[in-house]
Write a structure and sequence with these properties.
By secondary structure, the chain is an alpha/beta fold. The chain has two domains: about 130 residues, Rossmann fold (3-Layer(aba) Sandwich); about 130 residues, Rossmann fold, CATH 3.40.50. The strands form two sheets. The chain has a six-stranded mixed beta sheet with strand order 1-3-2-9-10-11, sandwiched between helices. Helix 9 links the parallel strand 10 and strand 11. The chain is elongated and about 55 Å long. About 0% of the residues have low confidence.
């Protein structure tokens, strides 16, 4: 899906500003809606896609054989929650089968998704990142506990390594994978080069990395004049590694926090 959404708002902090949204929003258009509500003209051109894993063998093995023996369930993204629930339905397993587990998640948005399912969230770090989870778990006795981390096909190893150093056993099972869109987004490059955009927004390292793959060498990142907004230190680091100048980073690592950061006068 690509194109622009005109704001119905007569005015707003971002009124008349053209904003590129690089996250997939077919099933979850929250960022586009927030931007439109603030008066922006939104170009929705996802630079990556999220798809369920091709093989659910590892996940099904946990459900069938490991579930009663687990202590913690840890989510590092809302996508992991969504796809875990979808797979449970396929297996005809009730969500209540997981309620004996203590649950930790990476941020407020993921916590909200879990609570909407009726689950109690035990731990949400102040900093919505793997580093934040590491800091929170470092204050607990974890020796001998068993953790299940359903997530990306190629997850960051920071959290799992830290848990193992504290004596925990960690089971990581992929539930989704990320990749570039199936067809090149020629319009994306033309739009960025045209200079019509006021803001680029990024919510994950995947969005950053694939933006670079899709637009270079036509787009010279060091010469970009467009303002850049991102969520979280991990995404900011990915932007810096590619030579972007980051204009704002959301202090509250949510989509609402991202838009709020963009509305603060520079």
């Amino acid at each position: 899906m690509s194109g622009a959404s005109a704001s119905s708002a007569a005015s707003g902090e971002l009124h008349g500003k053209s904003v590129l949204v690089t996250r997939p929003e077919e099933d979850d258009p929250r960022l586009s809606r927030l931007l439109v509500n603030h008066g922006a003209l939104v170009y929705l051109l996802p630079t990556f896609q999220i798809a369920p894993v091709k093989s659910w063998g590892a996940f099904d093995q946990v459900i069938q054989n490991e579930l009663p023996h687990l202590d913690w369930l840890v989510f590092t993204s809302r996508n992991a929650v969504r796809l875990l629930v979808r797979r449970l339905k396929t297996l005809q397993v009730e969500c209540s089968a997981l309620r004996h587990l203590q649950i930790a998640c990476i941020g407020k948005t993921t916590a909200t998704a879990l609570r909407e399912l009726g689950w109690t969230v035990e731990l949400v770090p102040d900093e919505a990142s793997s580093e934040g989870l590491v800091a929170s778990f470092s204050k607990r006795e974890l020796h001998g506990l068993r953790f299940w981390m359903p997530g990306a096909q190629q997850p960051r190893e920071l959290l799992s390594a830290s848990l193992r150093e504290q004596g925990a056993e960690v089971i990581q099972t992929p539930v989704y994978e990320t990749g570039c869109p199936p067809t090149p987004l020629a319009f994306l490059t033309k739009l960025v080069v045209s200079g019509r955009l006021d803001w680029l927004t990024f919510c994950s390292p995947s969005a950053v990395n694939n933006f670079v793959k899709l637009t270079t060498p036509q787009v010279v990142l060091a010469e970009l004049k467009t303002a850049v907004a991102c969520i979280g230190p991990t995404t900011r680091q990915a932007l810096h590694e590619h030579g972007f100048c980051v204009t704002v980073t959301a202090s509250e690592q949510t989509l609402a926090g991202l838009v709020q950061a963009m509305t603060v006068p520079s």
